């Protein structure tokens, strides 16, 4: 996967949010708020996958999966590479996997 940010961040969370832009962060979080996108991202945490297999594993129609993948690509959450006639998708970087893990962990904590 892509880059990994060092554990040392400059500024408080509020300062960093101001620098990045709260709308940008909100857009990323909104992408996780759609169950179909969340299922796609969760499948991609396991590793790269061809679009057709990804649709099947995520329980989506191929056209619906393609639409969601286009949105995820536009948000820079996934990347794609052509392999012959297939498109292979992968998470853009480890941050995306970390977001999924944190969201699941939070949900598990809320249920207990």
UniProtKB/TrEMBL annotation:
PROSITE patterns named in the record: HTH_ARSR_2 (PS50987)
Superkingdom of origin: Bacteria
Domain annotation HTH arsR-type: ranges: 17-111
Pfam families, per database record: HTH_20 (PF12840)
GO molecular-function term, one example from the UniProt record: DNA-binding transcription factor activity
The entry's keywords: DNA-binding, Transcription, Transcription regulation
InterPro entries membership: ArsR-like_HTH, HTH_ArsR_DNA-bd_dom, Metal_resp_trans_reg, WH-like_DNA-bd_sf, WH_DNA-bd_sf
Protein name, entry field: ArsR family transcriptional regulator
Source organism of the structure: Rudaeicoccus suwonensis
């Amino acid at each position: 996967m892509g880059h990994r940010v060092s554990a040392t961040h400059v500024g408080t969370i509020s300062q960093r949010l101001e620098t990045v832009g709260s709308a940008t962060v909100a857009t990323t979080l909104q992408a996780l708020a759609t169950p179909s996108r969340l299922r796609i991202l969760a499948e991609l945490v396991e590793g790269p996958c061809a679009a057709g297999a990804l649709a099947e594993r995520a329980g989506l129609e191929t056209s619906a999966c393609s639409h969601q993948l286009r949105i995820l690509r536009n948000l820079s959450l996934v990347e794609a590479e052509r392999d012959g006639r297939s498109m292979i998708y992968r998470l853009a970087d480890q941050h995306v996997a970390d977001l999924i893990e944190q969201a699941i962990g939070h949900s598990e904590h809320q249920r207990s």
